[in-house]
Every structure is written in C-alpha cells, then in structure tokens.
Write a structure and sequence with these properties.
Length: 287
Amino acid sequence: MKIKKLSQCSLEEALTAWNKGFEGYLVPIKMDMEAFINRVVHEGLSPEKSIIAFMHEEPSGIIMTGIREVSGRKIAWNGGTGIAPEYRGKGLSVAMMEEVQNIYIEEGVNIAVLESIEENERAIRLYKKMGYEVTDHLLYLYKKVGRKELKPFRTLLIKRVYPEQLKALDFYDGDAAWQCQWESVRFGEAAVFISPEGEEAGYILYKRVLDSSGRPDRIIIYQLKYSQSSTLKKGMIERVLSTLFLDSDDRLDITVLNISANNPSSKALLKMGFKNKFGQVMMKKYL
C-alpha cells in the first residue's frame, strides 16, 4: 500500500479512485471528469489535504477533505471516503483515516466533521472506531408543491441579502452540514425574514434551478431557520414558499437538503407532506 496526496496524483488517478471507491454505494455517485473537478472546486475540497491509496500500483481508495475557519475554529470536512470493493474490510480504510487525521493535526484543525447515510452501518462503525460521534440526524426532503395547495397566508416580509451576509446573523447555523453552508452554494440566493416588530427573525439559503426556457424548475433549500425568540411560527413554511417561489399556479419541485431532524422547519415540512428520500447522520470528532 502507498498513500499519496491527491495533489501528487493525476486527475485520471483521482477519478478512478473515486469511482472504484464508491462502486455499489447506497446512493449512486459515479462521476465523469468535469463533475469531479466541479465538486472539488464548488465544495472547497483541497487536493493538498485529500489522499489516494494505491494497491499494487492501482488507485484503490480516496478520502476527500476540505478545511474552513468558522467562528475562529478550523473545521475539516470528510467529503467522501471510498474504498474499492476488493479492499473493503481489510484495514485500508483505517490506515487512510489515520493518515487524514495526521493532516488535520498538522493543519491545526479543531473539529473534524462528516456525514454518513444511516444505512451504511459499516462506515459508521469505522468512524466511531476512529473517535467520531453522532451529533445529529439529517433529512433529505422533497415534494412537488403548487400554490393552490397552500393556505392563503399573508405575504411574508423579507429582506434579500447576499448569502455571505447570513453569517452576520447571531443565529446563523455555522454547524449545518458542509454542503449547506453559504460557501458551498454556488449561485445561491438568500433572504432574511422580518418580524412585525421589524426584527430579523429567520433566514433561508437556497438556489433556483432553471429549465431550458429560463423558468424555475426546481428549488434547493440549504438552510431554513428561525431565531429562538421569533414570533413567526404558525404557517411560516407556507408563507416562505408562496412569497419566494410560487408566483404562478405552476407546481414546483422543492428539495430541502440535509436539514436537521431537530429543526422545527423539518417537522413543519413533513407535516406539509414532504417525503424523506434518505437520512444521514452527522458525526464530529474534536481534535
């Protein structure tokens, strides 16, 4: 076995390691070169902090890593651990996780985080063995929503902001899943909800996906949160959707990505009929 940093390998070797490493995975994530490069760039993954394992000179395992500073803490995210099928359960994953941990220590990382599909018991056992603990349960919610099915709530007062301005809110969720942080949301939009008293009471971070004619085809919501003191509660989800997105009678696909099961918004969405496509656990390790 030989472990190299991704920056020391060719892109072809990295892509091979990724696609072999995720063969038979619970959620299909095979990529071509363009998709792989885009993922590295858009999710802030670092070739210098990511590794590839070679077995018999063949790329056979990969761990992708990104590091950010949030509120004075260095956070490292495991953006994908994949092992070729023939080497699973043979100690390669442990050796790779130890190598990545050494990188985290060298970089002065305070907290290491990752997500794992709840059904992936083998991976969760590995991460627990390496000192990670489950800190949250995440949902992937979706529904096709039309204006006619929403109750006639009054329009919500909002203030549109740039996504990066959300971090100035004292209730911004800096512990949300890595892919749901404003830094990861390319072409994202954001809005702050204003209470009747004129206070900032909540926010949403989202992205519109347009069809070939330029009309909204799908909405991806990355964060949806209210302050603990917010008086905006009853009917808020309906008001958010109708105010921001449903300006016609068309039905729109809405996806809510990696929202905490403990977030009151997720409970309201489920009550509205949103379905959970799959669940993940969020795991952390303090270094």
